[in-house]
């Protein structure tokens, strides 16, 4: 019988998933999804080759589970950060900063590449995790319009335009010592684009 990691079956499951996701993250960033194998991830994670198949049927299932967990964690962090800010414009600035830093830190293939890598149903599950982020941005934009802090444009236009601006990897593909400067320049760009008005 396989050794239980973590003291209980539930703890074991969480520990295995944490180890596997950490190994997958490193391999994705270093080699890309095409080079990933379940056996290779299991070996790096220090879990049995058979055990990994008890959690993930194939590497596509593993990638979807990984993206879902990463996205859920990020959405919680995003909501907490935005909720901690009172001013509508500063909420938008906070959103922009977090989105760009997440883009800089994570190197999963962009949407088009993922669409070509995953089966349609799996890609739809991954893509669905963008929805809570867009919903959060919509709430911020609508609140800023209602407060008279940005130009009263159609949120159906503003939200995808802001989202597109924050998805350009070249913006954050800079040396680490320049990232703060680049992010703040991007914040200023977005705030100008939505017509931020003085709070006075």
UniProtKB/TrEMBL annotation:
The transmembrane segments are none
Quote the PANTHER family the UniProt record gives.
Answer: HTH-TYPE TRANSCRIPTIONAL REGULATOR BETI, HTH-TYPE TRANSCRIPTIONAL REGULATOR RUTR
Naturally occurring in which organism (per UniProt): Amycolatopsis arida
**A Pfam family of this chain:** TetR_C_24
Q: Which domain of life is it from?
A: Bacteria
Instruction: Give the matching InterPro entries.
Output: DNA-bd_HTH_TetR-type_CS, Homeodomain-like_sf, HTH-type_TetR-like_transc_reg, HTH_TetR, KstR2_TetR_C, Tet_transcr_reg_TetR-rel_C_sf
Q: Which residues form the HTH tetR-type domain?
A: 14-74
From the UniProt annotation, which stretches of this protein bind DNA?
A: 37-56
The UniProt keywords, alphabetically, are: DNA-binding, Transcription, Transcription regulation
Q: Listed GO molecular functions?
A: DNA-binding transcription factor activity; transcription cis-regulatory region binding
Q: Please state what the protein is called.
A: DNA-binding transcriptional regulator, AcrR family
